[in-house]
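Narrative of accomplishments. A recurring question from our advisory board has been how the design workflow behaves on a single, concrete structure rather than in aggregate. To address it, we present the structure tokens for one chain from the evaluation set, followed by the sequence designed for it. No filtering or post-editing was applied between the two.
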């Protein structure tokens, strides 16, 4: 869960339990009322599970909502609960058989290609981020642009996607003190995630740059440029000059 300043969720997850795949799958499914299930897969599998659920379009499933460590599956009616539970159990068993890839960059946008986000790397915290990580500013920019990020989930504000990367070099903490106003389009890092602020708001993330793209537009379909599962590649705006 996020706060008004865009808290960074704890990225660790539940460890694998001993026992059979069936026991593990059963433990990963919890009822959330009478028309939803909360799934807790292994930590590296949240995005894959959400993508699989969307691809399979299970009868009775209304929506699939991934978070940092869980996936909420909502149902069309209470009558769908038992057949959906069985289908989820089977899917979790299959997921447990897959190797732990740790690759969070495999997701794609609805168009099938990463969303390209040009960034002016002139953020107020860029130098401090580089010092904290023991890297040069050029190395920080190269690491940020040199990988495909994937939106693990959306929170804090409409269009605010929490992006993860298989490259862990850019894992920096939030600022000790939050800012009262961060401009829309600010590109930031915190807790192993990157994000683009969709609107002017308070926030405590480390600002490394800005983009001129509009992340949230109610007149666009869909309004969010980045949704859960979307792949994103950041591009140094100076390279196009």
């Amino acid at each position: 869960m996020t706060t008004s300043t865009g808290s960074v969720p704890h990225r660790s997850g539940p460890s694998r339990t001993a026992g059979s795949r069936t026991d593990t799958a059963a433990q990963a499914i919890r009822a959330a009322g009478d028309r939803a299930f909360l799934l807790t897969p292994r930590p590296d599998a949240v995005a894959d599970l959400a993508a699989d659920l969307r691809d399979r379009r299970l009868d009775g499933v209304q929506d699939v909502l991934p978070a940092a460590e869980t996936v909420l599956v909502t149902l069309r009616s209470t009558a769908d609960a038992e057949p959906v539970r069985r289908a989820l159990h089977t899917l979790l068993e299959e997921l447990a058989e897959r190797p732990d890839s740790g690759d969070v960059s495999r997701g794609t946008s609805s168009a099938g290609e990463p969303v390209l986000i040009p960034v002016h790397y002139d953020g107020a915290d860029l130098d401090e981020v580089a010092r904290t990580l023991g890297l040069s500013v050029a190395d920080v920019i190269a690491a940020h642009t040199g990988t495909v990020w994937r939106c693990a989930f959306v929170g804090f504000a409409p269009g605010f996607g929490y992006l993860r990367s298989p490259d862990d070099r850019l894992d920096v903490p939030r600022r000790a003190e939050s800012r009262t106003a961060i401009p829309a389009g600010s590109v930031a890092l915190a807790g192993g995630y990157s994000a683009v602020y969709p609107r002017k708001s308070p926030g405590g993330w480390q600002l490394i740059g800005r983009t001129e793209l509009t992340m949230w537009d109610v007149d666009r379909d869909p309004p969010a440029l980045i949704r859960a599962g979307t792949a994103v590649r950041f591009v140094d705006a100076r390279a196009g000059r």
